[in-house]
Amino acid sequence: MTAVEIMDLAGTDQSHANTIANCLYKKKIDDILLFPGISKKIREALNERSYPGIFRPVASEKSCDGTIKYLFRNRLGLEYETVYMPDIKRHTVCVSSQSGCRMGCPFCVTGKYGFRGNLSVQDIINQVISLPEPIRVTHVVFMGMGEPLDNIDNLLKACNILTAEWGLAISPGNITVSTVGITSGTEIFLKLSKCNLALSLYSPFPEERFRAVPAEKKYPAHRIIDIMKSYPAGKKRRMSIAYVMIGGINDTDRHLYGLINLLKDSRIRVNLLPYHSIPGDDNTSSSPDRMQYFKHELVTSGISASIRKSRGVDVSAACGLLASGLK
Ligand code: SF4
Questions:
Q1: Is the CB of 147 under 6 A from ligand 1?
Q2: CA 20 to 30 Å from 112, out of 21, 89, 118, 270?
Q3: Interval between CA 164 and ligand 1 midpoint (Å)
Q4: 319 is catalytic
Q5: What is the 3-state secondary structure (H, E, C) of 60-103?
Q6: For 199-224, what is each residue's pLDDT tens digit?
Q7: What pTM did the predictor assign?
Q8: Residue 314 Cα to ligand 1 middle (Å)
Q9: Taking each helix axis from N to C terminus, what angle separates 221-230 and 253-263, rounded to the nearest 10 degrees?
């Protein structure tokens, strides 16, 4: 039964829809019988036919830098992790879009975990509204477990709820979807959403990128970048490249100039990220000096660049480490 059918049967109208959305997304009330502003008869009718869909994490771990990693288990038993990163003015939640991932990137713990299933819209939104911290989430990044564009329908619906006035009313400019690039999904996402897009690159050279991002074979990064360039970033929408830097592997001058060549004359910015070694891998991150050098050379070539700080490494909550604790 659809939500509209349930609401019809319960005797609700448009004014109830706004009240219900307010109770769920802004007040975060997890018991329909406690929804204010609706008659007892309608609350009971709704409660008989539906559930609010707010469920709490089953475990959490706190990092020494304040980052908190949560483990969720949905009604189907799928497990996935969410990361809350507090900052002075920002409250960022990094959400998962899938339990596991089918993209198989060898440098990612989630890739090694394998694909267990897509998360529903409810599972995605719940990661933002069910955290125990009494905060108003200001930023959402789809950089948790899974490839968001591989679950495009639920991703788009979730972005709609996150940004709608009747939903969480978060600015689309404060929501970033990170992808390894799926051609059709990229086009659909950029057409139907106003949120930011970040492409994980790893290397500007296809044959090297393929070794770290197998999706390169089917969805070449240069094609995804062409699509990104054809949607010029407005003042509020950011297009970016996430470039994880591995010492001696993808941080040579050849890579730097390849990157500059790929992005010149575009408004795509570059986020340089330190690499977090996964178990059984001897590679290490590029040095802070090397990362600064990359940033400097990119900026002097006219490409906006920044270095992203690692968060939550001690609790395996950083990029590429999610699913470390799952079986
Ligand atoms: S890096 Fe992203 S796309 Fe690749 S396996 Fe990990 S979660 Fe999936």
A1: yes
A2: 270
A3: 28
A4: yes
A5: EEECCCCCEEEEEECCCCCEEEEEEEECCCCEEEECCCEEECCC
A6: 999 999 999 999 999 999 999 999 99
A7: 0.93
A8: 20
A9: 40
Q: What is the pLDDT of the chain when averaged over all its residues?
A: 92
H or E stretch covering 163:
helix 152-163
Instruction: Give the count of beta carbons closer than 10 Å to the beta carbon of residue 14.
Output: 8
Strands 196-200 and 239-245: parallel
Query: With b meaning 16 or more CB within 10 Å and e meaning fewer, what string describes 276-298?
Result: bebeeeeeebbeeebbeebbebb
Q: Which of 23, 101, 108, 319 is catalytic?
A: 319
Q: CA nearest 317: which of 86, 129, 34, 14?
A: 86
- Each residue's pLDDT tens digit, 129-167: 999 888 899 999 999 999 999 999 999 999 999 999 999
Cα of 101 from ligand 1 centre, angstroms: 6
Work out which ligand 1 atom sits closest to the CA atom of 104.
5
